[in-house]
Amino acid sequence: MTVRALLAIAAAGVLVAVGACAAEPAPREATPVSVQNENPTGAEGGNTRPVSDAQAGGAADARGADVARPVRLHIPAIGLSTRVIPLRLDAKGKLIAPESFDRVGWNKSGPEPGERGVAVIAGHVDSTTGPAVFYRLPKLRKGDRVHVDRADGTSVTFVVNRLARYPKDRIPDKEVYGSGGADAQLRLITCGGTFDRQRRSYRDNVIVFAS
Question: Which end of the chain has the smaller Cβ count within 10 Å, N or C?
Answer without folding.
Answer: N
